[in-house]
């Protein structure tokens, strides 16, 4: 499970990231709305945990965009505002939960777990192709495909951004925890595995190479 933390209090965001890591969550941390929107554009998150007031704006203003782009991503707002009107405003804007500061960390984790548990499915369905990120499973016309690890994550990321051309650098940043420690050719290896283990046996095309720009997910179609 991957969580994006948008919180401008450095001590607090560090505590949140380290604490959530102990519970098995991967976290990205940013201190501004602008950087938060950047991460949301390149990565897929199960949950966004964000402070209400940030140096460059009001986080509640971007909840609608998050829900439009990734409807199954849970959004939890943290705020020092302890009035009911603020909580109602955040929830009506699309937040899944509202947690008032200061908070007990164990209670926070329990509430995040509840949101992740009941937040809905992130299954991708495109005609006869089904990609289940939660169980790392792929089915095409009721046939299960054996594709695991990074190739599966690359396929899933491209499928979620199927209207976009995604560069190697964006894929590295989105999927590898330390992208600076790997070379871009790992993307080529992953794409090749997708084509060898999935596309060729099934007679479909799922990914096209856009020269000098990156890769794009293609709607599954039979190869003539």
Query: Total strand count, please?
Result: 13
- Low-confidence parts: none
Class by SSE composition: alpha/beta
SSE string, helices as H and strands as E: EHEHEEEHEHEHEEEEHHHEE
CATH superfamily of the largest domain: Response regulator
CATH topology of the largest domain: Rossmann fold
For the termini, the CA-CA separation is 39 Å
Mean pLDDT: 88
Could you describe the 3D structure shown?
Helices cover 41% and strands 23% of the residues. The protein is an alpha/beta fold and 224 residues long. It folds into 2 domains: 2-118, Rossmann fold (3-Layer(aba) Sandwich); 124-217, Winged helix-like DNA-binding domain superfamily/Winged helix DNA-binding domain (Arc Repressor Mutant, subunit A). The strands form 4 sheets. A 5-stranded parallel beta sheet has the order 2-1-3-6-7, with helices on both faces. Strands 8-9-10-11 form a 4-stranded antiparallel beta sheet, covered by helices on one side. Strands 4-5 form a two-stranded antiparallel ribbon. A hairpin with a 4-residue loop joins strand 9 (129-132) and strand 10 (137-140). The longest helix has 18 residues, at 185-202. The mean pLDDT is 88.
Overview in brief:
This protein has helices at residues 10-22, 33-42, 63-69, 84-92, 105-118, 149-160, 168-175, 185-202, and strands spanning 2-6, 26-30, 47-51, 53-54, 57-58, 74-79, 97-100, 124-126, 129-132, 137-140, 143-145, 207-210, 214-217.
Helices and strands in order:
Layout lengths: L1 E5 L3 H13 L3 E5 L2 H10 L4 E5 L1 E2 L2 E2 L4 H7 L4 E6 L4 H9 L4 E4 L4 H14 L5 E3 L2 E4 L4 E4 L2 E3 L3 H12 L7 H8 L9 H18 L4 E4 L3 E4 L7
Parallel strand pairs: 1-2, 1-3, 3-6, 6-7
Antiparallel strand pairs: 4-5, 8-9, 9-10, 10-11, 12-13
